[in-house]
Amino acid sequence: MDFSLSMEQKILRDSVRAFAEKEIRPVARTLDETERFSYELTKAMGELGLFGIFVSEQYSGQGLDYLSYIIAVEELARVDASQAATVPAPNSLGIGPIYYFGTEEQKRKHLPGLCNGGRLSIGAMGTGGARGCYEMAMKYTKERVQFGRPISTFQANAFKLADMAMEIESARLLLYRACWLRDQNKPFTKEAAMAKLHCSEVMHRVANHAVQLHGGYGLMKEYDIERFYRDQKLLEIGEGTSEILRIVIARLIGAF
Question: Is pTM, for the whole model, over 0.85?
C-alpha cells in the first residue's frame, strides 16, 4: 500500500495552505463576528481552481482526482470552517450532479462557469479542523509556562496532545482510503459514511481537548479555538447526523 501523495497533490496542498494562511486567516475572525459572506475570498478560491477540481479540463475544471479535492478542503478547514464549506457546496452539491449525471449540453452550458466560481468533503472539514485545533493547542501549551516549564510537558497535557495527534492520523487514513476507493471506481458508500462519522467526531474530541488546554482563554473570542469549537458541531449534524450515519453503517454491515 502506497500512502504517499503525488507531486501534483503536494503542490496543491502547499498552494492551498499558503492561500489559507495569507488570505483567510487574517480576516476569518472578523467575518465570523460580522456574519459576512466574503465574495472576494470566494472569487479568489475560484481563481485558484478550487471549484471543479475533479472536473475534466474540457469543462474548465482542473482534471484532478477526488483525493486532491479532499486535500484542498482539509487545508482550508485547518484555518476556517466557513471558507472550507464554501468549496464543498458548489463542488458536491452543484458541480458533481451535473458532471456525473447531466447531459453533454448541460455540462458544456453550466460547468465552465461553476468551475471558475458531497459526505467525504465533510470528513475533510473534520480532519482539517481537528488539525487546526491541535496546532493551536500545541502552540499555546508550549508558550504557556507554569512552575518554570511549558505546560505541554505536564503529563496530563502531553497525553491529551498525544491522543489528539493519534486520532487525527486515524481519521485521515480512513478518509483517504474512502477517497482512493472512489477514485478507483470501487464501492465506497460504507467507507464514506464511516469517514464522515469518524472525522466529525474526532474534531469534536480534539476541539474539546484544545479548549481544555487553553483553560479560560479557550472561551474568549480573542483566541481562535473558541470559533473552532463552535464550528465543529455542524459536522455532526450536516450531511447526515451521527445518529443517521450509524444507521447507514449498521445496514451496510448487515446488522439489520
Answer: yes
